[in-house]
Amino acid sequence: MHRVKGYLRNTFLLGILTALPIIITYFFLSFIFKKVTGFLIPFIDFVASKSGITLTVFAKQSLSLIVLIFLLFIIGIIAKNYFGKKIISFFEYLLVKIPLVRGVYSSIRQVVETFQVSGGTSFKKVVLLEYPMQKKYSIGFVTKETSEFLNNKINNESYNIFVPTTPNPTSGFILIVPKCEVIELDITIDEGIRFVISAGLISPEAAEKLNSGSK
User: Fold this and answer.
1) What's the structural domain count of the chain?
2) Which of 76, 99, 141, 160 is the most exposed place for a label (fewest CB within 10 A)?
């Protein structure tokens, strides 16, 4: 009887561990889908009510996604056109004149331009650094070498390092760390991100085996 209970418990736990990545992926994609498609739903509700059309929630979300993709495609065409660039530059000029909007828009614009220049990868290498205290290490990603202005202030050549939070690596802290205090890791950016997202459960070695097994 004890052996049967152990078998049932282990099988059930294995089922949970197998299904968990799929469930988390589903809820994550579902959350993104709702946020993206919900952007135009008020406009679709207004048009539908004026036209006397009744739409299901899924139909509204699907239509919103299609319209949003179409609008982004049109904006891309305009951005490639000479006169379109002039129009966009004019709107950007207006935005940077608004005190509160200026700082937010300029920061986001700089991040987008960084991703465009670097081909979508802003991280240069994965490193270990003593953070948040001595003898306690965190994974960090080098974004670039620190500017001469800041290097002169701290009298040391340094890195700009992004230390992400777990399990959401899109938020975190920017640290300026002297190069001599940084331990460079011989792993890929993807392996470092997997380590952060998994809260340390997937080590770089495990990530390497996972990659080789999926090929």
Assistant:
1) 2
2) 99
